[in-house]
Amino acid sequence: MEFYIQLVISGLVLGSIYALVALGFAIIFKSTSVVNFAQGELLMFGAYYCFSMVVQYKIPWFWAFLLTLVFSIVLALLVERLVLRPMIGEPVISIIMVTIGLSSVLRSIVTAVWGTQIQVYEPPLFPETAVNLMGIPTSQVYLWSFGLAAVLLGLFGLFFKFSKAGVAMRATAFSNQVALSMGIPVKNIFALAWCIAAVVSAIGGVLIGSINGINIQLGHFGLKVFPAVILGGLDSILGAAVGGIIVGVLENLSDGVLKSAFGLQGIKEVAPFVFLVLILMVKPYGLFGKKEIERV
Amino acid sequence: MLNVNNIEVVYSDVILVLKGLSLACKEGQITTLLGANGAGKSTTLKAISGLLKSEEGEVTKGTIEFMGEKLNGMPPEKIVRKGIFQVMEGRRVFEDLDVVENLRCGAYTRSDRAGVKRDIDLVFDYFPRLRDRRSQLSGYLSGGEQQMLAIGRALMARPRLLLLDEPSLGLAPLLVREIFRIIAKINEEEKTTILLVEQNASLALQVASYGYIMEMGKVVLDGPCEKLRENPDVREFYLGIGEGGTKRSFKNAKHYKRRKRWLS
Q1: Residues B236-249: pLDDT tens digits?
Q2: A257 in a domain, yes or no?
Q3: B96 vs A178, A179, A290: nearest CB
Q4: Which residues of B touch A (CB under 8 A)?
Q5: Among A10, A277, A282, B8, which has the highest number of CB atoms less than 10 A from its own CB?
């Protein structure tokens, strides 16, 4: 039993990080209707940059973390300004190809600068001693990651509901032209969407990096986030959160249960996608996605 | 207040829509712009508000001046800050935002929180129905309520010049009357200058004080509304009243007999 609870706990942690990255993905898709295939690379970049500062330059964690966020904002602004803004109004398929290209470029830069070795944060971000959670020893990294992700998701929920910029972002997502007619500077909103996406991804990258170590495989995280986002409905913030957590738990449970029961190797990678297909057969717009409001 | 001089508008570099259009709006008045479908009324409004750019349109000739300042080529968000606000055709409320959030979007360019709060109440005073439905998603409002919301959202920006594009579109006649009554009231109480584009000529000529009639991208006739209401061409082709003051019916319609001459 303890084994399964442990699986669920680590699933929840992984899921909450998925949820963070999925949030970034959903924000970009919702306000700019760009499907961002470079989401995982944004995450990887954040993790590596933080690694550089903590391990190579020995900057204290607090400042290193803040600088990581600043750096991801700069990266996001550059990407938005130089790569995506010229693509406004181009066909969707071209924009998707551009983000795929962007992901290759970012991955190559990371390989060139930091190499392909697995790296670990030293000193670690959170204390390494385990704490007792309802009789189950759990490492503190897990608790902190889950807590941080949950707080961030909550904050963004409030941001979209109550802040002027958040409401304007939702308005822009509904219609760029009408938002323009309100005097909402749509281009700045696009830039803001990219910034938020890069920041949450970088945080996700640092968290996952302090759990599993950092290597080039982190880029594939972006692919894992797909089932999470699609599950939740591409354009829903709440959906991204729920989808992320479902995928995380599912991945871990299927790994623990199915692998030991049937000896299926690699089921971990496939399970979320199988579940995704099943859900989409029943609810084509995802769990929380809305096609359009129909008035009756 | 607003002076449009001889503008030409081209869509996608080839389609010439406005061919030397001029009009002016006097401060504090309602000016109306009438015309058939495809005459270029909405294009005129979009040229003024700068939204043309998002539709591949461009003002290639002429000038648009507001309070003595040239608006040509200015980005729309700046034009809104200058005090011009367009209510687009077909209501276009943010359907997955609730009523209050829609209103807050209208006030995006303002930074006085207290004033925004007060104006939300002001909008609810003009449109009491919106107050009852304040926390509902605006996608679920009725057509009339959505139009009220669209106008209310414009008021939130405290515009000096309000561009209204067919507020009567798709609404029941009684609702149209109510909307027009409120438009006149807004003009009177808030001293907002209004440029009104309409298909419903008789109502528009009642609330407005000066009118322009356009066809094929040009103004063919303009004048004070009382005069326009007397013009035989306007009476026949826009108000549907025959020469003897009788209502025209299709039974004895002989449009080919009378040609439009647009003599003022």
Answers
A1: 888 877 666 666 66
A2: no
A3: A290
A4: 49, 51, 54-55, 75-77, 79-81, 85-86, 88, 92, 94-97, 101-102, 104-106, 108-109, 137, 139-140, 142, 153, 157
A5: A10
CA distance A24 to A75: 14
Residue pair B121/B105 in contact (Cβ under 8 Å)? The answer is: no
Nearest residue, CB atoms, B94 vs list A174, A292, A295: A174
User: Quick check: helix, strand or coil at residue A201?
Assistant: helix
Residue B213 near residue B207, CB atoms below 8 Å: no
A176 domain-assigned: yes
Task: State the pTM of this model.
Answer: 0.85
Kindly list the residues from chain A whose CB atom is less than 8 angstroms away from the CB atom of residue B137.
293
Total of domains in chain A: 1
Q: Pick B2-230's CATH classification: 2.40.50.1020, 3.50.30.50, 3.40.50.720, 3.40.50.300.
A: 3.40.50.300
Question: Is residue A275 situated within a structural domain?
Answer: no
Indicate the Cα dihedral angle A132, A134, A135, A140, nearest 10°: -20
Establish if A23 belongs to a structural domain.
Answer: yes
Question: Which pLDDT score, from 0 to 100, does residue B221 have?
Answer: 92
Range of the domain at A42: 12-222
